[in-house]
């Protein structure tokens, strides 16, 4: 039987949660110029606990030089850049509240959560419940050496929330010079060996094929959504293919374009070039077998890429 005393206790408990909560506008006022909120015992409960319509990203870290946390110092700029990138997009403003919880300011919180090492990053989803706390459901991002690249952390946030985040890259004069020299050399070689000797209609055909491959490979998709050209996994290794059908890296489009080019070459060889060999039946049959095998290999390779992006895809061919 529910007693009046129990009902009063429930009412007081609910009222304490509601009174302790603050609205979005008040949370925004706690942000500094870098869109960052530093958590402390006076604000951590009201920002994270209870009902809230926004995500909360919490970086558990330390700036105490006595603790000698080099990883904390190296990851902090990536965290700041991701926060700035999200808040730079009007439609995503206030979608995520980026916060930092320092060890020396939140010792009791670290003890309650049993956090014995830093840095740790947790992403708390919006909550409709008044009983939500720091111990409630969350997504955790593993900080590794790859995390020192702002794109890695931004990609993780993008996948968790299914949004597109563009992180401005610092200008690297060395990298720019390398790309410039390589591009310049390729243009000079192409001009001397191809443009000066090939007929104009051949150049037009080449340009048309290149344009078609660029557009069907999804290159414009990555440009429009501002997706990074390459990304790295938790071990710092380059990720050539993203793990989702709604997302692809810039480098992935060039790989797909190369596959399409290979398929195109095989089809042209089988339909036009090889049948034109009329004086040597053995050579024609041998080339047909070789090119057909190559065509099947490319199709299997392309199928394998799609299996990476969608493991539940039912039409699996040979693994290559």
Given the helix and strand composition, which structural class is it?
alpha/beta
Which overall shape is indicated by the principal axes computed on the Cα atoms? elongated
Strand content: 5-15%
Helicity level: 40-55%
Number of domains: 2
Instruction: Give helix and strand order, one letter per element, not per position.
Output: HHEHEHEHEEHHHHEEHH
The largest beta-sheet arranges its strands as 1-3-2-4-5
Q: Number of helix segments?
A: 11
Q: pLDDT under 50 segments (min length 5)?
A: 4-21
Largest β sheet strand count, sense and barrel closure: 5 strands, mixed
Q: How many E strands?
A: 7
CATH top level assignment of the largest domain: Alpha Beta
* Average pLDDT for all residues: 80
User: Any idea what the CATH architecture of the largest domain is?
Assistant: 3-Layer(aba) Sandwich
Name of the CATH superfamily of the largest domain = Glutaredoxin
CATH fold-level topology of the largest domain: Glutaredoxin
């Amino acid at each position: 039987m529910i007693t009046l005393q129990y009902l009063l206790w429930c009412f007081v408990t609910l009222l304490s949660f509601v009174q302790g909560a603050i609205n979005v506008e008040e949370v925004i006022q706690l942000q500094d110029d870098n869109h960052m909120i530093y958590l402390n015992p006076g604000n951590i409960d009201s920002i994270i606990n209870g009902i809230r319509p926004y995500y909360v990203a919490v970086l558990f870290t330390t700036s105490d030089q006595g603790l000698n946390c080099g990883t904390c110092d190296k990851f902090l700029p990536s965290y700041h850049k991701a926060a700035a990138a999200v808040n730079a997009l009007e439609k995503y403003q206030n979608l995520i509240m980026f916060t930092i919880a320092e060890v020396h300011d939140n010792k009791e919180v670290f003890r309650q959560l049993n956090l014995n090492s830093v840095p740790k990053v947790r992403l708390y989803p919006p909550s409709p419940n008044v009983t939500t706390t720091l111990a409630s459901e969350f997504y955790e991002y593993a900080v590794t050496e790859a995390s020192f690249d702002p794109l890695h952390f931004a990609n993780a946030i993008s996948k968790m929330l299914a949004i597109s985040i563009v992180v401005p890259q610092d200008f690297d004069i060395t990298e720019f010079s390398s790309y410039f020299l390589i591009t310049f050399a390729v243009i000079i070689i192409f001009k001397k060996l191809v443009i000066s000797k090939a007929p104009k209609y051949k150049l037009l055909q080449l340009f048309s094929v290149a344009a078609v491959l660029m557009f069907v490979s999804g290159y414009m998709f990555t440009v429009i959504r501002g997706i990074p050209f390459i990304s790295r996994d938790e071990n710092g290794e380059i990720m050539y293919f993203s793990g989702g059908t709604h997302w692809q890296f810039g480098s992935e489009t060039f790989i797909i374009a190369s596959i399409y080019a290979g398929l195109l070459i095989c089809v042209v060889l089988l339909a036009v070039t090889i049948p034109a060999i009329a004086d040597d039946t053995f050579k024609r049959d041998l080339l047909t077998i070789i090119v057909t095998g190559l065509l099947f290999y490319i199709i299997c390779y392309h199928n394998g890429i799609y299996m990476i992006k969608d493991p539940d895809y039912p039409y699996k061919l040979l693994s290559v």
